[in-house]
Amino acid sequence: MTTDPDLDLTLLRLLGPGEPEVDCDECFELLDRYVDLELADEPAEEILPGVRAHLAGCPACAEEHESLRALVELDHLS
Ligand SMILES: [Zn+2]
To answer: What's this model's pTM, rounded to 2 decimal places?
Structure first.
């Protein structure tokens, strides 16, 4: 259930520069779609590049992602 922040950082370093980046505003705007894609087993990181990298480095957005995901999951169950 939990993501491994250390692993995310390692992946970020491996990917290095050239990875598209989004800021908090963009991340927030993309988060709805990102979560939908994740829950639909779509390659969210490929479709919305930069979001995952941002989530790995931004606790505020990571928390937003977690709560949004929980909400959408509940929604899918009902
Ligand atoms: Zn952020």
So the answer is: 0.71
